[in-house]
Please model this.
Amino acid sequence: MATPAATTAQNAEAGRRGDDVRSDCWVRIELSKTGDVDVRLRSKVEIMYGDATRELVRDELNAFGVTSATVEIEDAGALPFVIMARVEAAARRLGIDTGSGCLPDIEPHAQYATERDRFRRSRLYLPGNEPKFMLNAGLHGPDGVILDLEDSVAPAVKDEAQLMVRNALRTLDFAGAERMVRINQGARGLEDLDFIIPHNVHVVLIPKVEDPALVQAVDARIKSLLASNGIEQPVYLMPIVESALGALRAYEIATASPNICALTIGLEDYTADIGTQRTDEGRESFWARCQVVNAARAAGVQPIDTVYSDISNMDGLRESVLEAKSLGFDGKGCIHPRQIQVIHEAFAPAAAELEKARKIVAAFEEAQAKGLAAVSLGSKMIDPPVVKRAQRVVRLAEALGSA
Model:
């Protein structure tokens, strides 16, 4: 080659706009045959962290076997896990074998488990290549955060996003929120699993599912990765129905693996697939949403509704959540932190609903204490699914401090 190989890792915003806007940091590596690793840093926090950043970059490249290179960095105050992801992405684009990566230490606050039947009222989508949105996501109190590798990440930076999400899973404190990742479709999605499964992810969202075999392929790959990394904590699955065929096969999808914890629907792709526009009234998607609710309930997993895309319309969001609740959904996606509180409030049990649930739970506990198999409330027999639903309502009220 006439000139040394060089490559760049930069944030998606700068890549799209073609200017010098940086949301965290920009990295360019040029390999050389002589010399050492020369780090040329321009940083807003040079005085406090300049030397530490240069040392971090040199240590990472040395770990990759790179001993001669010029590295240009423009840093806007990025955290170490971000810089590490950007540097590794640039190295990989040069064809450097980075192996399993140069990983940031896994922080104690990043290590906590989840439960299959936990509340999933809200799940907040976060672009996987934009760490600025991840840093304080847990402070908003979502039930889950979704580090997204699919639609919110431009194709040109999906390789960076894999590394960024991996490092975020090891580093960030999501304040007890369930740690979710939405993978890509097909072979790239299976590859995504290699970057996330060993690093304390709780739930994998599988997009655009039309065939149960896809869920089973993801499940098998996860089981293999868990076993090879000595991880006993299960990773749960949330398939997303986003097409007419997916809706038709919703029950097959919902029962494709015992590790499925929820089934959800994505209406932007679904309405495009059936050749119509999504409306606030939702008549065009009523059948599909009911399919998802019934399939999920029949399979014994949680039905989760789609996102509400107008982040400025809180009244519309509240109406959408109340409608979802009336159809039988347990939760809803959100694309902005301001939507979380409205979703939680709308999913909270009403006073009459809570009072009835308490009576059912009390009748059930009384029957158990007496050794009775049947549960009755007044003259009406109470079936086990009704008891289970009532117990969930009471637990939800307790979680909200209203029981």
